[in-house]
Amino acid sequence: MPEQTPMPPDQQVPFSLVGKMGSWSSKALHYPIFSPTWFSYRVRGFIIPLVLLSIFLMLISFVGPKEIMNMNAYLSFFFMWFSFVNSVLLGRWLAVKARSYGKLHSWSAKRETASIIVSLVIAATISAAAILISNNFGDKLSASKENDVTEIAKKSAPENFVKEAKKTDKNSSERGIHLSATSKTTQRIVNGSVWLLLTLWLVGVFDLRAYFRQRKALEEALMEEKIERYKRERNQAEMRLSVLASQVEPHFLFNTLSGVRAAMLSDPARGVAIIDHLVDYLRSTIPQMRSDGSSTQSSLGNQFDSVRAYLGVIHVRMPRLSFEVECSSDLLALPIPPLMLISLVENAVKHGIEPKKGAVKISVSAKKITVAGQEKLQLCVKDNGVGFGGSTSGSGIGLSNIRERLKQLYDDDAALSLSAGEDGGVEASIYLPMNIFGDDSKSN
User: Which residues contact 127 (CB under 8 A, 6 or more apart)?
Assistant: First the structure.
């Protein structure tokens, strides 16, 4: 049975195998162009051509006819070899050094690009000068050989032939000289064009083009990565919100239901009041707790309804609590992140109100203020509870989650601040930038 190939035709070769089998030039493309590692791989790709060129020129020097191999020939070959080596190495090496220096000193993209172009231009100029010098020595070699051939012809030609040659028409001689000069000029233009294109290719013009393409691709990739990271962070925040929503103050619900059960036995009217407030609380809060985590905004009015219902439940359970909830009607439609305001209120009740004996009070308000010349929306929760002495001084999990969500949603434009109240409690405030609400907030 004939042995079969391990892979069927037209199937893509694994990427790891491509990296192992690729040339030095293809491996260089795995790194930023004009970086030190890229340069090392790129130079390896030119080693074999440079070695073959060196061997070829050396063979011509040793094997060539002795009649034409003089100092002009050797110098012409040397400057030709130098032009190739300079084109391959110098421009890329200078570009690598310029880019590394630019990264170290935080150059702009335009300045870095200009330094790379200047490096390649320097190498191309030196290579072009070397080619001109090589051609110059080649012309001297050709001229000397022509003179030698003419002298040999004169010595070997018959005397009559020489006399006839001297009588050649002067106009024909001048015409021949003119045609010879024109031919040499055309030849030089063609040779110069070929050498110019070859030098541009060797010096790294296509590497420069690949550098621009790679930089653009990297910028797009970084932008996509930032977008993906933002999406992941947003999804994580929404997931945490969903988890929070599924665990919204279980002790509050359990305590409330226990209070309802106890009130039904001793004071049914009080139990009914608790149930009414609990229904209002759940009706206003559940839309902010959607299990799919897609509820990223909730109206300020909805959140104030949740706060009133929540504090109503607490007041029935704890008659010593009094509360005030104030919000201007022109702010009720503003969209803000869900569960933030109620989290501050729950934190005030749990850490400030419940541990304190005697009459307690909570005030919740929303208003526009100016901070450092910028208009902000302030959501404030004040209590006269035990203060920082009976709490975590702002380091609790709930407050940390609020700070993290504000950072993800508004970066440094929003903040949560805690301060000691005048009557011994805590004043917690969330500051949101008014410019996120658009023109609607200005027209209200």
Answer: 83, 84, 86, 87, 199, 202, 203
Q: Report strand pairing: 360-371 vs 321-327.
A: parallel
Predicted TM-score (pTM) of this structure: 0.48
Q: How far is CA 101 from the centre of its chain?
A: 20
Distance CA 127, CA 304 (A): 77
φ and ψ of 426, to 5 deg? -130, 140
The answer to which of 8-22, 156-170, 176-190 has the lowest mean pLDDT is: 156-170
The rounded distance, in Å, linking the Cα atoms of 289 and 199 is: 68
Q: Would you say 321 and 314 are in contact if contact means Cβ atoms under 8 Å apart?
A: yes
Give dist(CA 413, CA 16) in Å, integer: 46
From the number of C-beta atoms within 10 Å of its C-beta (0-12, 13-18, 19+), residue 164 rates as exposed
SS3 call for 218: helix
Q: Is 390 within 8 Å of 355 (Cβ atoms)?
A: yes
Burial of 405 (0-12, 13-18, 19+ CB in 10 A): buried
Residue 68: pLDDT above 90?
Answer: no
What's the whole-number mean pLDDT along residues 389-404?
A: 65
What is the C-alpha to C-alpha distance for residues 311 and 318, in angstroms, rounded to an integer? 10
Using DSSP's 3-state secondary structure scheme, residue 419 falls into strand
Q: Within 10 Å of residue 168's Cβ, how many Cβ atoms?
A: 10
How distant, in Å, are the alpha carbons of 113, 207, 380 from that of 96? 11, 12, 57
